[in-house]
Design brief:
The chain has 216 residues and is mostly helical. It is 79% helix and 0% strand. Helix 5 packs antiparallel against helix 9 and helix 8 crosses helix 11.
Length: 216
């Protein structure tokens, strides 16, 4: 019997395949992405990172039982330690001061994205929070692994390579599997709502990627 998360993934396959050929991801992977576009993207993406930290924390508080928090605790630790450290170092290299990246002027797609995450953070049930995190972590893990397995990363642009490998980290893959196990146990009456959250999260992520290229 096909699992619930496998069905959700299959329903969104066109978006997954679109990601592999998305200009931002292709240019990031081959190194042709301009420095200005990458800097602009990271400035926006930092707001996404902060939103993920908040929703993971909210999920921990809403978990029905202690064992349910494990993948969220692991994810929160990775977001705070590894990903936040990467952004801080990247902004230092780009010469972007904290007062700029901590209070960015969000482009409309990222503003809509973070508002969506905030809505689920504040009003979503535990299964919706886990579904949102699954969609975003799975999506980012897959496109990053696609670039890594292709085997031609732009080694002359170490910040690009570090960003890709940050998302292709096997620990992220483990978190995806653990979140899938949780969501596969969602009762039938909740599956339609979780599927909607899964779709909306992916849609927002793709639009946020596209916004990085609009001024180039």
């Amino acid at each position: 019997m096909t699992s619930f998360t496998t069905r959700m993934h299959g329903d969104e396959m066109s978006m997954w395949e679109h990601a592999y050929a998305h200009p931002f991801i292709v240019q990031l992977g081959n190194g042709s992405l301009s420095r200005s576009a990458f800097e602009r993207f990271l400035s926006q993406d930092f707001a996404y990172l902060e939103a993920l930290v908040r929703i993971a924390g909210s999920g921990i508080g809403k978990a029905p039982a202690v064992p349910d928090v494990y993948p969220l605790v692991q994810l929160l630790a990775a977001l705070v330690r590894e990903e936040h450290t990467y952004y801080a170092q990247a902004f230092e290299e780009f010469g972007v001061p904290p007062e700029v990246y901590c209070y960015p002027q969000l482009l409309p797609p990222m503003r809509a994205f973070t508002t969506f995450i905030q809505r689920i953070t504040e009003g979503g049930q535990f299964d919706e929070i886990c579904t949102l995190l699954l969609a975003l972590q799975w999506f980012d893990y897959d496109w990053a692994c696609h670039l890594v397995t292709r085997g031609s990363l732009p080694e002359d642009k170490p910040l690009y390579v570090r960003y890709i490998k940050l998302h292709a980290n096997p620990a992220k893959g483990d978190t995806v599997l653990e979140l899938r196990d949780q969501i596969d146990s969602v009762i039938d009456s909740r599956q339609a709502q979780c599927s909607l959250v899964f779709h909306q999260a992916l849609e927002h992520r793709v639009l946020a990627l596209e916004s990085a290229l609009r001024s180039d």
